[in-house]
Amino acid sequence: MSQSLQGIGMTSQRTRDRMVNRLIEQGVRNHKVLDIMRTTPRHIFVDEALASRAYEDTPLPIGYNQTISQPYIVARMTELLVNKLGHPQKVLEIGTGCGYQTAVLAQLVDHVYSVERILPLQKKAKTHLFDLKIKNVSYIHNDGGWGWPEYAPFDGILVSAAPSEIPDALLEQMAMGAVMIIPTGESGGQILQRVIRTDKGYEVEEFEGVSFVPFLSGRE
């Protein structure tokens, strides 16, 4: 890994190790998730001016009124997905953003299908994942509420923005036994949910309160 990817000082491996120790203290237990977050350089996904804060447990702005989720939320959502599925083959990601969550997911699943409505963000994400030599990701510039029906059904769906209620199109694109991790609700009252599709319908589990950008329609 080049020095810019490896990081120095506040972006160094030692800083990533401290982040992972904090994730363990916060209750993240999946060793595969922890190992991937230990080795994935989060600082390359934010502006250089914010790189020294990349491993703090806080969301950071990435432009276009969007944020990179705090490390705990990335770890928690990923863990909730893979704990139920083991090694998923096809995962749909709604909201590529800067590509950090995409990079973590792509190292745990066979293929990620990632939807982003803001084209400049998607272009940046592609560059970051190319630099990391992560190639098992397909990208589409589209409204996340539509999912990606051409490649459905999916084993897993991970949504990085909060709708007031779960879009029907995403529920319909879940395979039998599939798992969706999604925050829902209005600002100030959002809940992280895990939805499992069964032969009787959809089972919903609620976890902690979260704060995500709103789930918006259209493309930019």
CATH architecture of the domain at 63-210: 3-Layer(aba) Sandwich
Helical run tally: 7
Q: Report the strand count.
A: 9
Rg is 16 Å
Largest sheet: 7 strands, mixed
Biggest sheet, spatial arrangement of strands: 5-4-3-6-7-8-9
Q: Write the CATH fold name of the domain at 63-210.
A: Rossmann fold
- Beta content: 25-35%
The CATH superfamily of the domain at 63-210 is Vaccinia Virus protein VP39
Q: Structural class, judged by helices and strands?
A: alpha/beta
Q: Give the distance, in angstroms, between the N- and C-terminal Cα atoms.
A: 33 Å
CATH class of the domain at 63-210: Alpha Beta
Could you give the order of the helices and strands? HHHEEHEHEHEEHEEE
Let me know the average pLDDT. Answer: 92
Q: What would the principal axes of the Cα set say about the shape?
A: globular
Description of the structure:
This protein is 30% helix and 27% strand. The chain starts with a helix and ends in a 10-residue tail after the last strand. The chain has 220 residues and is α/β, with parallel strands linked by helices. The chain has a domain at 63-210: Vaccinia Virus protein VP39 (Rossmann fold).
